[in-house]
Amino acid sequence: MPKSGFRQVDHPIILGIVGDSAAGKTTLTSGIAGILGSDRVATICTDDYHKYSRIQRAENGISALDPEGNFIDIMEQHIQMLRQGRPILKPVYNHDTGSLDAPEYVEPKEYIILEGLLGYTSRTLRSCYDVKVYLEPVEDLRVKWKIQRDTGKRGYTVDEVKASLQKRVSDSVDFIQPQRTFADMVVQFYPPETDHEESGAHLNVRHTLRPTLPHPDLSPVLDAGIKNGFRLELSRDIDGKPVDVLDISGSVDDKRAKNMEDLLWKLIPEAQHLRENVGQFTDEQNNSLTSHPLALSQLLITYHMVKAALGHHAI
User: Fold this and answer.
1) Using an 8 Å Cβ cutoff, are 132 and 184 in contact?
2) I need a labelling partner for 23 at 20 to 30 A (CA). Which of 77, 119, 137, 198 fits?
3) What is the pLDDT of residue 282?
4) CB within 8 A of 213, min separation 6: which ones?
5) Domains delineated in the chain
6) What is the DSSP letter of 42?
7) 150: closest CA among 171, 165, 138, 172?
8) In this predicted structure, what is the pLDDT of residue 272?
9) pLDDT, tens digit, for every residue of 10-45?
């Protein structure tokens, strides 16, 4: 595993991104990998550890959200091996066909991103991450994204997607949502009050920042009077514990967004890769667009990965 000169730790830095189906995990992951440089990042989808094909799940009634339908023990072994710098033979679940394909040989890199449904299910898994993120877009938005993705890329009809969502409600409550409590950052995209139909570039985002990580000092931008579009306040999470909450408006103008982005870039000079691609996503018409809230979310998470590589986030 190659190392950069600035690194102060001797293991890969592992980021977890967990959230329900169609929460935006892959979009967030691809942007972070782009910032760090794809040659330095190994990306793994933990949904590859499904035990059953789509047909088998339909027959046995176990959903993909249920840990019993996944090889959690093999996932644990593999994340531990990767953290030790050892390669794995990773299973592959084909989301397009719903089948289990041939396994893939994966070598660890400087940074590893594990994204999927069940990444924080066990204590063993949770102990291996340097940074843990939970994605929870408001439910109406997630449903819209899931319908868009599954009808456009996976061959489902709208009715089939809605039926699948309904069948998974209890599993989501039982198995996915409880993982939120283990995250260092909770990221929630939501539409503005003025446009409840917004689902893309002008979505707002709320970051719930827990004190389990030392978050960046954003006061140079916030104190400079550039507060339109940003709000940072002390609050309490749903469990009553104190947290910082950063709200970023989807209507923030280019200048204000650039000032915040420049501040974050200066805090992570080791990660000046593919800067122009930050915040990009594909809409339902397959157009490539840019979102300031998405870009800033990707940069904030990347900040923690770089600082972890410098030894600031020792676990």
Assistant:
1) yes
2) 77
3) 77
4) 131, 184, 185, 304, 313
5) 13-309 (3.40.50.300)
6) E
7) 165
8) 59
9) 899 999 999 999 999 999 999 999 888 889 999 999
263, two tokens: 């501040």
The encoded tokens of residue 130 equal 């340097």
Residues in CB range of 23: below 8 A, 6 or more apart = 135, 136, 137, 142, 145
Alpha-carbon distance 226 to 203, whole Å?
19
Stated as kind and residue range, the H or E segment containing 106 is strand 99-106
Q: How far apart are CA 294 and CA 31, in angstroms?
A: 9
Q: How much is the pTM?
A: 0.92
- Beta carbons of 87 and 95 less than 8 angstroms apart: no
- Quote the pLDDT of residue 3: 47
Among the listed ranges 112-116, 186-190, 235-239, which one has the minimum average pLDDT value? 235-239
Q: Return left, alpha or beta for 279; rule: phi > 0 is left, psi -120 to 50 is alpha, else beta.
A: left
SS3 content of the chain, % helix, strand, coil (to 5): 40, 25, 35
142 token code pair = 């997630």
Q: What is the pLDDT of residues 53-109, one digit of tens each?
A: 999 999 999 999 999 999 999 999 999 999 999 999 999 999 889 999 999 999 999
Segments of 140-199 assigned E as strands: 185-190
